[in-house]
Design a protein that fits this description.
alpha+beta; 5-stranded mixed beta sheet; disordered N terminus
């Protein structure tokens, strides 16, 4: 297990519930279908946890140490309703941030997702739908996960980049890093929590295969471009309709240390790793989840946020 030498100070805490992987022997799954009624009905294992406000030790939690980092960023984009404007205005901002923060030589934006609904809204959406029906309300993801497994990161790379270019770029260090930012108002419900990678036991990682909807079928249908290639990865194509790749879910471990940023504003953004090819002891990913604040009602004004996924490359650095 990765360990940390960071001295734990008496930080403000939120007592909450995080939802972990339900083991197969207990009725859990090995394949899921994001963006469908099935996924909204999926069962997880609740655990009571303490989630610490990281603001007093903000400088100690960085991409390479903990796997996540809070930065200041005021975007020129405010509404996040126009897809083309998001790509024209927000994507270049994120590309520059990624290069500045990581010293990467190249950044390739994969896709983005906006969330404007509550968990309560999302539970109503599939009520009268079949498991295979698509849902339309995109709520905060309330289960512990990383968007891809280490192997899934390679699978999603080949689904979103020309095969020749992907082969070339993966000869050096590369990774996947997400940016997550609230817009319109500060975060007063469903903040994002991260587990310090130094307290993660990789033996607690559980692989689930995600089958995304066809392109254009809701937010999750736009997560991947699903480029054709030679089938380097057996989970790459799902009958030529949608991408299929591995994601990471987590089993609970009491050694895990969780953090969030209280009252995050639209002028602040999270950067967090999904994958880093480097195996020199630095953080390789940041498992995460949204969570309900202690006195948060089920109904209320939804949190509004945007998440951008990026491939990041360090040409000339050893891949591992």
């Amino acid at each position: 297990m990765a360990t940390t030498t960071m001295t734990q100070t008496e930080l403000p805490k939120e007592k909450s519930t995080l939802y972990y992987y339900l083991e197969v022997k207990d009725g859990g799954i090995v394949q899921t279908y994001p963006g469908t009624a099935f996924e909204k009905r999926r069962k997880h294992v609740p655990h009571n946890v303490e989630i610490k406000d990281m603001r007093p030790i903000r400088d100690e939690l960085t991409l390479d140490k903990s796997g996540f980092e809070l930065i200041n960023h005021t975007s020129a984009e405010k509404d996040f309703t126009d897809e083309e404007r998001i790509k024209k205005v927000y994507y270049p901002e994120i590309e520059k941030i990624m290069k500045d923060k990581t010293s990467a030589t190249h950044v390739h934006v994969i896709s983005h997702m906006c969330r404007r609904h509550t968990t309560a809204d999302s539970k109503e959406d599939p009520a009268e739908k079949k498991d295979t029906d698509f849902v339309t309300k995109n709520n905060p993801a309330r289960f512990v996960h990383a968007d891809q497994s280490y192997r899934g990161a390679e699978q999603i790379l080949y689904l979103n980049m020309d095969e020749g270019e992907a082969n070339k770029r993966t000869k050096s260090r590369w990774g996947t890093i997400n940016a997550w930012q609230p817009f319109d108002k500060p975060v007063k419900r469903d903040p994002l929590a991260f587990c310090d990678f130094r307290t993660v036991d990789e033996n607690d990682m559980r692989t689930v295969v995600a089958n995304l909807p066809p392109p254009g079928a809701g937010e999750y249908g736009n997560v991947s471009k699903n480029f054709a290639h030679k089938g380097k990865w057996e989970y790459s194509l799902n009958e030529d309709q949608a991408p299929r790749y591995e994601v990471t879910n987590m089993a609970h471990n009491p050694n895990q240390q969780w953090y969030y940023a209280a009252d995050q504003t639209p002028d602040e953004a999270w950067l967090f790793k999904i994958f880093d090819s480097k195996k020199d002891g630095r953080a390789r990913c940041a498992v995460h989840s949204s969570f309900p604040l202690q006195h948060q009602p089920d109904q209320g004004e939804a949190r509004t946020s945007v998440e951008v996924r990026c491939f990041v490359f360090w040409e000339g650095e050893d891949v591992e």
